[in-house]
């Protein structure tokens, strides 16, 4: 099967290369927490020699509840991203929800994420594509693996082929998600070799019927989902961690406790090396 290599600065991402970690926190919080999280990720990934991109949102425009924390906003978010790049020399990824955000964000951030629920919005795709940035497409929860080719085709139409595809779960009845591991290679096939990553955080979301908050009972399955995904040979993982998940501003119940990252990543790296040695 064909494999495309996408370059994020000096980081190369492909389904045949050692896995790349897209990790961070769901949304930018207070300054000290952001610095703590990024520094910890950078330290661990450098020790383990894992290519790393820091991820956080500046505005969670898609929160379920009108009362939920959204983030610091575009202007403050950009300043925080600039500080992270200068202080840690780290590559960055964030999501955009509006057309006018794309070009501004591309001047600071290395990878622009297209949110799952907006992944068919042609005008937003055009705006993101025309920045020339690397793009991470979150596969919509309602979409089959084969249908992602039409999102990829839109980016190609607008002259951007620097595409990463991210599996984040598929609707499984109401208020639940399931990950089709066999669909990962289907996505790779229909996209003609795009790097595939799996979001092992949001794919574990469940909710009670009348709740706007994610449940945390599936947090213990993050490692299981990561192992299953890496075992079929993919380009990377997307994960969110927090020093105090139960008090995180967004999706804390499904975030990995920060202190668990070293053990988690060490095991995943061993498995990835084994799988790609065949």
UniProtKB/TrEMBL annotation:
Task: List localization entries.
Answer: Cytoplasm
Its pathway is:
Carbohydrate biosynthesis; 3-deoxy-D-manno-octulosonate biosynthesis; 3-deoxy-D-manno-octulosonate from D-ribulose 5-phosphate: step 2/3; Bacterial outer membrane biogenesis; lipopolysaccharide biosynthesis
Does this entry carry the keyword Cytoplasm?
A: yes
- Every DAHP synthetase I/KDSA domain range: 10-274
Any single Gene Ontology cellular-component annotation: cytoplasm
One Pfam family cited in the UniProt record for this chain = DAHP_synth_1
Main localization is cytoplasm
Q: Where are the transmembrane segments?
A: none
Q: Which reaction does it catalyse?
A: D-arabinose 5-phosphate + phosphoenolpyruvate + H2O = 3-deoxy-alpha-D-manno-2-octulosonate-8-phosphate + phosphate
Q: Which family does it belong to?
A: Belongs to the KdsA family.
In Swiss-Prot or TrEMBL terms, this protein is called 3-deoxy-8-phosphooctulonate synthase
User: Source species, please?
Assistant: Blochmanniella floridana
């Amino acid at each position: 099967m064909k494999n495309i290599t996408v370059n994020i600065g000096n980081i190369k991402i492909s389904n045949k290369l050692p896995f790349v970690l897209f990790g961070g926190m769901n949304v930018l919080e207070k300054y000290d927490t952001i610095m703590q999280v990024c520094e910890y990720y950078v330290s661990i990934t450098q020790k383990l020699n894992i290519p790393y991109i820091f991820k956080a949102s500046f505005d969670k425009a898609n929160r379920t509840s009108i009362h939920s924390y959204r983030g610091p906003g575009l202007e403050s978010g950009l300043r925080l991203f600039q500080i992270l790049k200068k202080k840690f020399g780290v590559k960055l990824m964030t999501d955009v929800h509006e057309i006018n955000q794309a070009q501004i964000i591309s001047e600071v951030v290395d990878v622009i994420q297209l949110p799952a629920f907006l992944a068919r919005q042609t005008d937003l795709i055009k705006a993101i594509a025309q920045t020339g940035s690397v793009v991470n497409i979150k596969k919509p929860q309602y979409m089959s693996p084969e249908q992602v080719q039409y999102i990829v085709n839109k980016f190609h139409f607008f002259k951007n082929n620097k595409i990463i595809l991210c599996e984040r779960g598929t609707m499984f009845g109401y208020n639940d998600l399931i990950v089709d591991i066999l669909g990962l290679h289907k996505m790779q096939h229909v996209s003609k070799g795009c790097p595939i990553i799996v979001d092992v955080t949001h794919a574990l979301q469940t909710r009670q019927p009348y709740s706007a908050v994610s449940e945390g009972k599936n947090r213990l399955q993050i490692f299981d989902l990561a192992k299953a995904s890496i075992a079929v040979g993919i380009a990377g993982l997307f994960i969110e961690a927090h020093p105090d998940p139960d008090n995180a501003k967004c999706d804390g119940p499904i975030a990995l406790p920060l202190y668990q990252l070293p053990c988690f990543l060490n095991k995943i790296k061993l498995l990835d090396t084994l799988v790609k040695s065949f």
